Amino acid sequence: MTRILATAATEFRIALRNRWVAIAVAMMVLFSLVLSAAGSAPTGALGADRLSVSVASLTSLGVYLVPLVALLMSFDAIAGKVERGTLPLLLTYPVNRAEVLLGKLVAHLGVLSLAIVAGYGSAAVAAFAVDPEAARGLPALWRLVWSSVLLGAAFLCLGYALSARARRPSGAAGLAIGLWLGMIVLYDLGLLAGVVADDGGWFTTDLFPWLLVANPADAFRLFNLAASEATAAAAGIGGMAGAIPPLYALASILLWPALAMGLAVLAFRKVTP
Amino acid sequence: MERRMTQSLTLSRLSKSYDGTPALRDVALEVAPGERVALLGHNGAGKSTMMKIILGLIPFDSGTVEVLGARPGSARAREGVAYLPENVAFHPSLTGLEQIRHYLRLRGLPVGGAMDLLGRVGLAEAAGRRIGTYSKGMRQRIGLAQALIGRPRLLILDEPTSGLDPVSRRDFYALLDGLAAEGAAILLSSHALTEVEARTDRLVILSRGRVVTQGTLPELRRAADLPVMLHVTPREGAGDRLAQALPQGRMNGTALHLDVAQRDKLPVLAQITTLGDAVADLEITPSSLEDIYSHYSRRDGQ
Ligand SMILES: Nc1ncnc2c1ncn2[C@@H]1O[C@H](COP(=O)(O)OP(=O)(O)O)[C@@H](O)[C@H]1O
Ligand SMILES: [Mg+2]
Fold it and tell me: What is the CATH number of the domain that holds B233?
């Protein structure tokens, strides 16, 4: 435990020095504010409070941005150590590889949580500024915050796994971008294409919901939109979420970080310094 | 078995190849507590490979390796072993002090000892600066400082003095003397042959993955049977007489030089003393470690 915390403290210091803390916070705040400004129009029409509407649009933002920031922070984690040549010495210390990864995860998740709270928080402040009823959206905001942190944890660990796989930072960066595109953009497009081609058949009714839940980003979106009062504000895939109990989506969000950490530890064990 | 347990490090019949290319062949080596052993060998001889195997960083093909009575890389071995890698590297964003504190925490020790460690390697003043601004020699000293953490019982140092200036090298060997006196076993590799000869107890010469010889320097000299160099300086005007008496020598400016085989050493010396007042001075140069090293490496190559 002390070794995990020691690693976390040092990694957090490095993240501060490398401006990762500043970059992550700035990105989340900037996009959150832009989005809440852009989403101000439909409020009255829906009858929902301003914060709940913001949460719905922040959910769509989080699906893209949280995995992106997480992968950007984590792709260098192992490959960078290999390239700098700091790995052999570290591995002669009485610390095991899982502890190294957990320490990194604690630090990176701390940075990401800071960015998430700052970003969503600034959007919430903006909502409260224009709508006194905004407090009704607070439970949804809270749910969005912790599920975003879990989504971030899953993608941080996936980033460690491919960092260990690639062993070189350039290769890991490529894999990270590919993973993001694949899991966040192409996956949904593929599902959508499947649904369209299937035209209401077995794929749409039986397989599609499970494929949706299996992807942590889609599960995150489903969970937040299903639970939100502002579901009506959501469009696209989220609209088809009705068939899936939010509990399954929640289970997916909870399981993914553990699964991804397992993958990362396995990949890291295969790295010969 | 009883004897084995008293060794800090035991390698026997150790072999390792990388994708079919042998890097170590049938290596046997023992290091006892308090002993300083120098591992010498050309580039690619297998020194770093041997060290990484001892540390459990890379697997080996056959043979046995016992580190402090445990399996290499096991928790028990890691507790007691310190390592200084070749070309040691650290995260450039951390200061020297932060880096050493981190390593102290990983060993479960209080971070209060960090300044003391940095002081021992002469880095107290640079402790607050980022390692990214350090010179190679300073990074090497951070590497040494971390290797001193927690009284290790076995130190594995891969070219520890590369990048150090002569004064720092002397300080480094003084540190090693202290550690060995406290009972630590030390295995270090080096290219700088002359510096290890006075500062280690035993030399192990590795060539193309094989231990070609090992022993103390006098033992290796005797076994190599390399000639001794004699420089005889004649008195004023006695040069010709000296050259006639010692025809095997060659006159070179002011002195007569002779390469004398080990077994002829004493007879030739006796002969020189009979020349009496023709001799102004006599200097004897034993074969250097470089000579011994190239003798063994060459012999192995043939
Ligand atoms: N990771 C590796 N993959 C393949 N060959 C290697 C690797 N590391 C070392 N070698 C080879 O093994 C031999 C021994 O290398 P090394 O142990 O680094 O020698 P030294 O430290 O004595 O210079 C060399 O021929 C080297 O090319
Ligand atoms: Mg080497």
Answer: 3.30.70.120
